[in-house]
Amino acid sequence: MSKIVLLRHGESIWNKENLFTGWYDVDLSDQGKVEAKRAGELLKAEGFTFDVAFTSVLKRAIRTLGMALDELDLLWIPIEKSWKLNERHYGALQGLNKAQTAAKYGDEQVLVWRRSYDTPPPPLEESDPRYPGSDPRYAGLTKAEIPTTECLKDTVARVLPYWNDTIAPAIKSGKKVVIAAHGNSLRALVKYLDGISDDDIVGLNIPTGIPLVYELDAHLKPIKNYYLGDQAEIAAKAAAVAAQGKAK
Ligand SMILES: O=C(O)[C@H](O)COP(=O)(O)O
């Protein structure tokens, strides 16, 4: 049996302001830093240790991982960063306020953009300053790999090969693994691990800064999964994520 930990970054400044973020590289809010430290404390209290860590190329996930590893005195372990663990690209919605977008287009439309499996948000033009094509961290990507928008299906299509080619072999070799990533790149992974249907994934919301433990069998099939911490508080945090896309 292997145990892995999935960790969504702590609250970011744009989470706090309720803005669609995607590939925008925003830092943690003060609350997000508290959450990241707390995640490390929880992992330490439960006796977790790690041999290798995987994260995205976005600072909110990298910083969360660093702060959690610092609590565990594991800042020295190898950290592999990949764009394949980035947040889902939010296309032309990036930078817009979620509640205001719902007030303009309706709660239902925003739910489709946020949570449907295969309907992407409106795309960016390549001339848009938000297009990631000239960002040096994506210099190694092919044109086809650089998104102008993504639905969850598109995110699964990059997260899953990274899981299969890089993360799963590390787990199978006996390494203890932590993955610090994002709400939707982790939804992509959880959908795959738990075999969640395209319809049911709409209802899955992952709270910020809470360690999600998966116990896996020898074939890396989940035996069980659970969040560390106060379960009522975690459920309230997940419900708050769901409510971010409502006009109110
Ligand atoms: O990119 C974002 O805005 C968030 O990290 C995830 O947003 P969502 O919960 O609206 O999909």
Report what the structure shows:
The chain is α/β, with parallel strands linked by helices. It is 39% helix and 12% strand. The longest helix has 21 residues, at 152-172. The radius of gyration is 17 Å and the shape is globular. Bound molecules: 3-phosphoglyceric acid. 3-phosphoglyceric acid binds at residues 20-22, 87, 90, 98, 114, 182-184, 241, 244-245. Pathway: Carbohydrate degradation; glycolysis; pyruvate from D-glyceraldehyde 3-phosphate: step 3/5.
What is the ordering of alpha helices and beta strands? Answer: EHHEHEHHHEHEEH
User: What hetero molecules are in the model?
Assistant: 3-phosphoglyceric acid
Rounded to an integer, what's the Rg over CA atoms? 17 Å
Helix percentage: 25-40%
* Total beta-strand segments: 6
Secondary structure layout:
Layout: E1 2-8, H1 13-16, H2 30-45, E2 52-55, H3 59-71, E3 79-81, H4 98-105, H5 107-115, H6 152-172, E4 177-181, H7 183-194, E5 211-216, E6 222-227, H8 231-243
Parallel strand pairs: 1-4, 2-3, 2-4
Antiparallel strand pairs: 1-5, 5-6
Helix pairs in contact: 2-3, 4-5, 6-7
Bound molecules: 3-phosphoglyceric acid.
Function: Catalyzes the interconversion of 2-phosphoglycerate and 3-phosphoglycerate.
Active site: 9 (tele-phosphohistidine intermediate), 87 (proton donor/acceptor)
Keywords: Gluconeogenesis, Glycolysis, Isomerase
